[in-house]
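Hi, here's the filled form for the chain we discussed.

Project: internal
Contact: R.S.
Residues: 218
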Amino acid sequence: MRLFVSINLGDELNNYLAGLQGELGKAAGVRSDGVRSDGARSDGARLSLAGRKSGFHLTLFFLGEVSVEKVLDLQRELKTISFEPFKLKFRKKLGVFKGGGFIKAVFVDIDRECDGFVRLLNLQKKVAEVVVKFGFGGAMNGRGGIGSESGGGRVFSPHITLARVGFCPREIAADFEKAVLGLEVSDREFDVDEFYLMESHLGVGGSVYEEMFRIRSF
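And the returned structure, exactly as it came back:
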């Protein structure tokens, strides 16, 4: 079973982010099938859009493959995590992950200055401390939760993925990046009062995510 732990977004935010994906597609000049917005074939960037099948989420920890025998024990341990509800807020500009000088993914970032950001880091640290007991990830890196690992040895960087870039010609890369970073994001605030253990099913056209169980705040 391919599992991860996440904060899932509600219908209102899912609809907003789907609309933002449309703006992203316009900025790129293409649809996800590699066709320009004017209907012509495109040599532009090709986007794989996240969240279309199962909604958007903020990953707290990606576990990867987990044996069925471990799942019940993992559930029991995750249910011991206690936290108070808190609020998060989007940053007003999109973020990007780059590789080899090119954009590889586009995401909505979380405002580091919002009241709930430290609580988010603390919640992620608690999740990481539980899953490390089962052999996932590694030890904390000593930054008091701010740098705790989110799976695969990566430092936790909270974000909500909008799209992955499957291809971008070198000659348009700079213009594409400028257009993406020029898009504004509404600094919407949202409540966090639960998180989920999720299963990812790989398939044609992207992954489908299934909720396994939910942990509520107290």
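Let me know if anything looks off before we file it.
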